[in-house]
Structure formats: structure tokens, C-alpha cells
Specification:
transferase; Glyco_trans_15; globular; binds manganese (II) ion; three-stranded antiparallel β-sheet; single chain; binds guanosine-5'-diphosphate; alpha/beta; 14 helices
Amino acid sequence: YSTQCENVQAPNQNHFGPVDTAPARRANATFVILARNSDLAGTVNSIKEIEDRFNRRYQYPYVFLNDEPFDEKFKSRISILTDAKVEFGVIPRDHWNQPEWIDEGVAKSWREWMVAGDIIYGGSVSYRNMCRFNSGFFFRHPLMEKYRWYWRIEPDVHFHCDINFDPFVFMEEHKKVYGFTITMFEYEATIMSLWDNVREFANMYPEYIAPDNSLEFISDDGGETYNLCHFWSNFEIADLDFWRAPAYQAFFEFLDYKGGFYYERWGDAPVHSIAAALFANRSQLHFFDEIGYEHPPYTHCPKRGNNWAKGRCTCDPEENFDDFPGSCLSRWERFINGTLS
Ligand code: GDP
Ligand code: MN
């Protein structure tokens, strides 16, 4: 029997061809997934897809975070999906709960106002906790401290194409700080006073504004008003040190004391996006066309060159959010090409 078995593939090889060779080098990077125990099924689906499309070759570790301890079932059903290191962490109470300087009476009446106006998640305190945590705290969690780069994943998302390159190494080699796949308009009612606060901050700390920033992408009138364009933060590949740096630390603290995470319903997407647009140079922001990505109900399906075929994508290029009226991608492309104004 021994001779017959000699041509069987070694366990670290597989049948997917030359793109599947072991990576030359890896970045100091991790996946990060915020989830509840009840998100198990959707989380399993997301991890299975990213493993099949990318990580089974690259073996980047995972950090799962939750405001409550993950149960044994969650941990075991996730851990069997990958050979990479998997860590499960609990979020400290003061990184999650509504802070004591928020006037709960005022916050409650605004929640009721949003519920009456049918604003999505308008009545939810836990959603607000989540947005504040993703804005100001995930990169400070003890399990995240050892890493420089992260890729944010959510339950129930889809990776539609083979990812035959290492986005973290790409970010590092091209001196990027923030990578996205979908950009769209925010619901104005959730961030009514955000831009006024951003302007106040920018006037107080002009030294934090990058010389070649992307203000023109997020404002149609030179900074007077916000045009609501933001990067959809359920997908992010970014530099943790950008959030840990003084500019963003000061920005988050300023916004946090203003209370808009609770009085309004500021999302981590506009907060991250405005910071990336103002505190980084435009060359440091990156649109990953190659990464076919779906967070229902929207999909980014690769369209440049032969990215779609090369990635063996399962998405329909005709159902691409990039071409929908709610997308800011054409504005982004005109901004980057210098054809915006
Ligand atoms: P949406 O994408 O804006 O519709 O919001 P989601 O419901 O997908 O939540 C965003 C992310 O935060 C997902 O990864 C969720 O699993 C996670 N999340 C939302 N609320 C909570 C919560 O109360 N506790 C925990 N642990 N995770 C949450
Ligand atoms: Mn989601």
C-alpha cells in the first residue's frame, strides 16, 4: 500500500493550482468579528467563505469580540473552520455601555423621535453601544493590541471571489491606512449634528488635517456641509495605528463627549470615514475592486479589467451596488482621477 500512496497530495498542498502557493510574507494582521452568541449561524457562514476564498492559504488569525462571554458551542463551531489561531474576547463594560455623562432622559426622547420617524435601529440602545464601540474601542481591546492591521468581518456577509493576493501586505507596501469595497450615502437623520461637530473639531485642531485630504469627496461645498458619502464599515481593511494615533483619539473623545452616539445615532461608518478622509492623505485610502463582497442587501462585484473572471466570482456583475444611485463610488473615482470639479 505504501507505493500507491506516494503520489497522494501532502496535507499542506491542494488542487487549486499555482495561485495557491504559500505566501512569501505575511503582515502583522488579524480578522476581527464582533458578534453575539445568537449570531453563530451567520458567523459560521462568513468564516467558511473567507477561509475558502482567501485565508486557508494565508492563515491569518481571528479575534472574536462580544459584550458577553462566547458560549462553548460558539467557540467550538467556529474553531473547527480554520487552522489559524482563534481568540475569543469579552468587551470591558466601559467600552460598551452608555457612558454616565449621557442624559438618559434626553437620549430616550430622541430614540422615541427616531422610532416615530421609522429610522432604522432608531430605538435601539445596543445598536448605539455597538456603533460607539466600533468607533472608539475595538482597536484598544487587549486581544487586538499585538496587531497592526485588521480586516473587519460580520456575520452573514459573502465573499464572492477568490482573493489571490494578500490585502494586508498590499496595504503595507503601498502605505495605505484604510481600504473599502462599498461607499454610499448615510441616513441624514442619524447624524444631524455630526458635521457641525466635525467642523468645530477641525477648527480647534487644524494640525490634524492632512495636507492632501479627501474633503472634496465628502463635501460638495468645500466643507460647509457633509454630502453623506461614507465607506461602509462592515467591511474594512485598515491600519489599527491610524485609530490609535493622536488625531483620531482626540476626534473620538471629542465626539464621544458631545453625546451624538446616543442622542442621535452616529454610526461608526461615517465617523471612521470622515476621519479617514480628513486625517489621511487621499493616496492612503484604497478601493479594493478585486474583493467581491456582499453585506445584504448590497454587493460590490468586481468590474475592472478581468477581476471578475480571475476571481471566479459568484456575484452577478450586473447587480453591482457601484452602479446604483445610492453609491458614492463614481464620486470617489472622479475624485481620485481629478475630474470631480
Ligand atoms: P448593520 O450591519 O448596521 O445592520 O448592523 P448589524 O446588526 O450587522 O451589527 C453590526 C455588527 O455588530 C455585527 O457584527 C453584529 O454581530 C454586531 N452586533 C450588533 N449588536 C450587537 C450586540 O448587541 N452585541 C454584540 N456582541 N454584537 C453586536
Ligand atoms: Mn451588518
